[in-house]
């Protein structure tokens, strides 16, 4: 049933093509056919079909503001609703005073009263150096603290002085998407396609690939 398995990728998040278009309500398969790199997609499809990817495969749009997860049911893409009944989940991660990690709407709800420990729009920081001009601009508008990591990258810091890399925050969101899909499918999910924006091609790959260490996925392919 899950035909998405033929196109999805390895744990390294190296994708560059848009997978979902909820606004335009276009089908997943249609978007792929219109992709400028359809030849590359066919190569991925053939390669992973021969490798015999097993189990359910999901597609995740990891967004700066919101994220969503979908599966292919027959020839139709099914965007899965989260626990709140919404097809999109805020890409927000927060840590409460007692150390509890919140992801999605629960994190967004308490943002006003816990702004220093609520991290949003962190995808903008993935792979960027602390000295990057874009990072300097973000520091003036974001409610949480951006600090310089030991390797010179831009990380975030909570009020307890604990630091997190942007890829860690991204991994927490991916894990939430994984949990949403597993609740719907009733089975463990280990394979996924993850979207990234076009500009990621100009950034160090290590930052975005860092998400893979915590999200428990084999990312077969990626699209922008």
From TrEMBL:
InterPro entries: ATPase_NBD, Heat_shock_70_CS, Hsp_70_fam
Species assigned in the record: Diploptera punctata (Pacific beetle cockroach)
Keyword ATP-binding: yes
PROSITE patterns xref list: HSP70_1
Protein name: Heat shock protein 70
Keyword ATP-binding attached: yes
Domain of life assignment: Eukaryota
One function term, GO molecular function aspect: ATP-dependent protein folding chaperone
Family: Belongs to the heat shock protein 70 family.
